[in-house]
Predict the structure of Serine/threonine-protein kinase PknB.
Amino acid sequence: MKVLIAEDNQVWRKLLAEHLQRFGFDYIEAADGQAAWDILCQADAPRLVLLDWQMPELDGIEVCRRIKQDENRGFTYVILLTSRDAKEDMVSGLDAGADDYLTKPVDAAVLRSRLRAARRIIEAVPPKEWTKPQIPGYEVTRLIGKGAFATVWEAHRDGDPQPLALKVLRVDLATEDVFGRFAREIEVMKRLDHPHIAHIYDSRIDHRLGYYAMDLIQGDTLDRFVKKHKPSGMEIIQMVADVCDGLQHAHQQGVIHRDLKPSNIMVSEDQNAKLVDFGLSKTMFWPPSSEDSAETLDGAVIGSPLFMAPEQARGENERLDERSDVYSVGVVLYMMLLRRHPQKLVSKERWETIKQIAEGQVQPPTSLNPKFSRTLEAIIMKALDEDPEKRYQSAGEMAAALRAFVARRTQNVR
């Protein structure tokens, strides 16, 4: 069996190649994410991939997402590699569809064991797409995305022409942790009912079947929508204000998202934005029996580094509240308007990035664009204040500030 080694560090790449050769695997190498993706687009692409998290051109998470979202691709087993043993890396990797996770330096015996397990799964799964699941009451039509433990399908409920997204757990392959996280995600989403949050309609999870049905959003993630449709600044602000409305509802239900980023905001062609993926959410005033979907000790960093609040980057998980989500929204708005991160990041290494974000040093928008509105800059900088007490104290408050800005601008144009 051939394995793709996608690793930008030549030393690690050589070491992995030596291990694979010793274990009896063929291999092909890629020194960056784009080269890895080019190999994976070939007709004889490997079905087993060792994928480094941080790479130039395309990072490992993006390559993984592309693999798992490609309808025409046969099942490909992805093992993500990262330089630190952090639970949020594992969770984020699984969110992207990764099938396994290893930390560097990789122990040879562990690597051999994981590769053998991967080979057994690959040999058990047909090279073409997963077989359509049989879900009582649903007609499953097409595959949207896939991973080792779950698949997402477009489906219709019997007698209802409205399409839905059906996320189906592979109960025969899912671990206890995956089961628990899936059940938790269902529990959280069932409590949320808002026009700007993807709605869950039906669910089931037991030892025979696990699935939930939710809104099928015909559109793109926010970043792809902005790149593809090039909306105006005012339109971007309005979409972000809508996201704030959805967040406000979640916060009122005691749910902190903790992983706000453009890829977790879906936008339809009519610019209706909806929050998705509450897999890393934290609950504030739920019963003690309701454990967080990403259990962590204080000091573990939860979330996507580029969009997390400073307190989140410092691993101060007990301090995370609705104002941490407000900060993340501020980062999203900044990046969608300016195409730059609020901080002048000096390293591509994940933990260096986290360390820098923890310091909370933000560049004012006017330092990048002197013509940027000072009023809008004040709104963004308030959301991005290092001190949670100085930020907007709720997502609703930020939404009101954004809409007031849009209203003033619209009035001035008239």
Remarks:
- The first strand starts at residue 2 and ends at 6.
- The chain has three domains: 2-124, 138-215, 219-413.
- Confidence is low (pLDDT under 50) at residues 288-301.
- The domain at 2-124 is CATH 3.40.50.2300 (Rossmann fold).
